[in-house]
Write a sequence for this structure.
């Protein structure tokens, strides 16, 4: 049988994987991203946000190539993703690039979902969260809105003519994205609550 030292070494090896290191680096990018937004270095924040998104794809690909991710990676990856998105909404709202009501809605939705899961687990009724189509759509729209807001403000396109001959204004595109994120955030939060209540 393996002794304690061997078990400790194998556990450490499971933790110190390249996908986990990339995920941890993405988590560390959260305070850096917030700092850049608060300091109005929005072009740099855009590059960092895009790099974080690419790192998410890379660590997922590496995990699948190695036959599946570790238990730590399964927890750390969604935490890093959610921490980055939520912090970006709060920071962008703080500097006036996104409406405060949208940031509050995004944060409140996640608090309700996570809080509901914890409460149900504490009372002995654990619930498995299954990603819904509307939730996936909401996440995609949230990412697009953050990237678009950083890009437009960082490169001076937030109130200029956009999309060439179609005369579509950048602020109009941003407004459409804001309302799309608001609607899908409300819909996905309500869907999770309804599913949790219905199954009980």
């Amino acid at each position: 049988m393996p002794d304690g030292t061997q078990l400790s070494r194998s556990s450490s090896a499971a933790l110190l994987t390249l996908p986990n290191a990339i995920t941890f680096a993405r988590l560390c990018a959260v305070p850096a991203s917030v700092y850049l937004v608060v300091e109005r270095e929005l072009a740099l924040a855009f590059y960092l946000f895009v790099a974080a998104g690419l790192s998410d794809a890379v660590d997922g690909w590496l995990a699948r190539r190695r036959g599946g991710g570790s238990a730590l990676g399964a927890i750390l990856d969604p935490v890093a993703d959610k921490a980055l998105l939520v912090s970006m909404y709060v920071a962008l709202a703080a500097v006036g690039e996104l409406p405060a009501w949208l940031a509050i809605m995004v944060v409140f939705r996640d608090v309700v979902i996570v809080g509901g899961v914890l409460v149900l687990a504490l009372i002995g009724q654990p619930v498995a969260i299954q990603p819904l189509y509307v939730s996936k759509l909401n996440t995609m729209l949230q990412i697009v809105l953050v990237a678009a807001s950083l890009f437009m403000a960082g490169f001076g396109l937030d109130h200029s003519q956009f999309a060439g001959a179609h005369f579509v204004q950048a602020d109009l595109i941003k407004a459409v994205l804001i309302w799309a994120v608001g609607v899908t955030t409300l819909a996905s939060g309500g869907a999770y609550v309804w599913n949790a209540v219905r199954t009980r």
In short: Helices lie at 4-15, 18-38, 42-65, 71-94, 100-122, 133-154, 170-198. The CA atoms of residues 141 and 181 lie 6 Å apart.
